[in-house]
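Quick log. Single chain, no ligands specified.
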Amino acid sequence: LLYQQARNRLDSMLRRCYDKEDPNYKFWGAVGATVCDEWHDPDVFCSWYIKNKIDGWDIEKDIVQLKSGGRLKQYSPENCCFVPKYLNQWFAITRSVPVIRRNSKCFYGFLYVKRYDGKKQFRLSGDTEDDVMEQYFLAKDLHLEKIVSRVKQEWNDIKAENPKTPEICPALLSVLENFSTEEYLAKKTSAKNISE
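-> predicted structure:
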C-alpha cells in the first residue's frame, strides 16, 4: 500500500515536471521544476519515500533547499522532506512584501495569515513605509514560530501513535528555526530581478 502511494506520488511529480499536456505542468515543469536523475528509478524513489514518510504529511521540495543551497525546484533527497500542509501553505502565501498604501493619516498594508479555520487579514499601519514593513516581518516571523511549535507537537502526537515514525528532517528544522521573512523575501526579490 505504501509502495503504491509512493509510486503514485512519483508518477504525479514526473507528469507535472515533464508532461506538457499535464494541467499542472505550467506551475512546475514550465518554470524549471525537475526530478533528480536517481529518482527516475521508481524503486530508488519509493525506498526513500517509505523510509522518510510521516503519516498525514506530504513531500515538499523547496523549504529545505533554502539552507542547503540545493537546486531550486528540484525533487531530490537533498531538497525534499515531509511537512504538514499548513507549513507548505505558509510559504506559499509568503511570496512577496505587501503593497503599502498611504491615506491622509498613515501608511498601511495588510498581512494575510492562512489558518486552519480560514484566512485572516490584519491591517498594519505606521508613520512610514518602514514602520509597516517592520510590523509585517515581525508578525510573519512570530506566526512561523507558532507554526514550528505546532509542527513539533503534531510530530510528537504522530510518534506516540506510531513509534516507527521517522524524525523530522534536521535540515527542515534548521531552516525553520533560523528563518527570517525579511531575508527570505530579499533573496526572492534579488533572484527575480536577476532573471528579468
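The chain has a mean pLDDT of 88.
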